[in-house]
Amino acid sequence: MKIPLHLTLDARRTGTTLTVVMLLLIACHVLAMQANFNESLGLKASLGFEYWQIAIFDLDEEESFGTWFSAVNLLFAALLFYCQAGLVGLDGNPMRYWWYVLAAGFALMSVDEVVGLHELVNTVFDDSIWAGLSIGIVITTGLCYLPFLWRYRWRTSVLFVLAAILFTGGAVGVEQMSGGEVNSLGYNMLTGLEEGMEMSGVILAIYTVLDLMGSSESLD
């Protein structure tokens, strides 16, 4: 027996809720790093916290609240893209394949957030290889999706482009800037910026697809 499930999500409310949670996580990261590193005296000093007490708020740690939140957001976005593909494909519209690819890509990024696939690439190969590969992927994907963006209203297209800029700016741009001494306050502040931009990009993508689903254009 099939039991239909109806779930109503408001784009603005969902986006606002996710943004508030993101800001709280970033604030916790900044405060935790400030507590762990005291550079005002010209040296790094622990202020009495155990490692696990800092790590659960460290956005650069795999076993932190921030990593869990990012992974869930990416998976949530993947599910929304998959649902949108199903809506578009009701009449056999070939545009559904573009949405399926997005769903698969975000699902893979969700796995990477927890498993650390790109860190494995950095470990096996030189860091510059991942930087070049990621930039190549971003450019190729952007060019391939120009017809997709052209198909939708300017609001949807602009928001998707902004989401992509935020995410790749953090994942590629800021990540390259943050190279250096890992155990320092400066590095961890840049990590907060990097993860914040990535989370903002995903949240904006979630808002955009929900906003699209609520419009008459969702079946195009």
pLDDT < 50 stretches: 40-46
Task: Tell me about the largest β-sheet.
Answer: none
* Chain-averaged pLDDT: 83
Number of domains: 1
Oligomer: single chain
Helix content: over 70%
Indicate the proportion of strand residues: under 5%
Radius of gyration: 19 Å
Structural class given helices, strands, pairing?
mainly alpha
Q: What sequence of helices (H) and strands (E) makes up the elements?
A: HHHHHHHHH
* Record field, number of beta strands: 0
Shape: globular
Tell me the distance between the termini: 31 Å
Annotation keywords:
single chain, 220 residues, mainly alpha, 9 helices
What does this entry look like structurally?
It is a single chain. This protein is an all-alpha fold and 220 residues long. It has one domain. It is 73% helix and 0% strand. The chain has nine helices and no strands. The protein has helices at residues 11-36, 51-55, 65-88, 96-115, 117-124, 127-144, 146-151, 154-177, 185-213. Helix 3 (65-88) packs antiparallel against helix 4 and helix 3 packs parallel to helix 9.
Q: What's the SSE blueprint?
A:
Blueprint: H1 11-36, H2 51-55, H3 65-88, H4 96-115, H5 117-124, H6 127-144, H7 146-151, H8 154-177, H9 185-213
